[in-house]
Amino acid sequence: MTAPTDTASPGPVNPALGPDELDELDNLLDALRVHEEDVPQWEFCDGFLTALVCTRRAVPVTEWLPMLLGDGLPLEVEDGQPLPLMPGFETQAQQERFLQLWQLRADEVARQLDAQAESLDADDAFQPEVIDMRGAIASLPEEDRAEMEGQEIPSFGQVWALGFMFAVENWPDDWDAPRDKEAAQWLDSALDAIVALTEDDTGTPEICMYDEDGPPSTSRQRLEDFGEAIWAVYDLRQLWRSLGPRVETIVKGEQPGRNDLCPCGSGKKYKKCCGA
Known about the structure:
By secondary structure, the protein is mainly alpha-helical. It has helices at 19-35, 42-54, 61-69, 92-115, 133-138, 142-147, 158-170, 181-198, 220-243.
């Protein structure tokens, strides 16, 4: 999955995945869940996808697909050969359709984050694919709500944030703090804002994000935290793009000692110059 480098054009933008495509994705995941019960919901997948868009390295599909839907072991694919059929997919065409829809959303997220919206209300601003499950259940008829009694219902944005952090935790080398202290603090602050969404919303419900006229299900603090998490995603995308891919140090031949004169001719000790 390679993020585009162009920015989104101004003005209203139709979503890459409309209601029909989102229903199709839900149906694909439901079909996979028949064979693998641990297959996540789309909200979790969207958080995972967003983290991949923000990751410093472009994580290839041979790594992320088995991490999300399989045993986590990278797929071995020879150049020019198609991906093997993952367990759960019934046909190659079904898997390819899932990847096609995934890429549409990934490209959209990258464009939105690169556009640097001035307001989260802007038409082209990034918005996570989340649902207010507590509000949806509270809006059900009483007899239907009774069937859900005792079940743990996630808070608004919680499943999405868990998906995001699942990607961060499974590619730790790509999320290592940069050496620059200011950049490292920027990274920590942004991740802290997303981690806050992985926690339960224990505030007083005042707002329904499922239906503006529905029963209160989300606290105002949670809504503020959700907004902070979205801005944090913008920061993470900008941070890694500004730093560029991680450069591995390649050591060639015999190296000078730390107290030797630096071979660059500066007259300084190696440890104070190129070896710093």
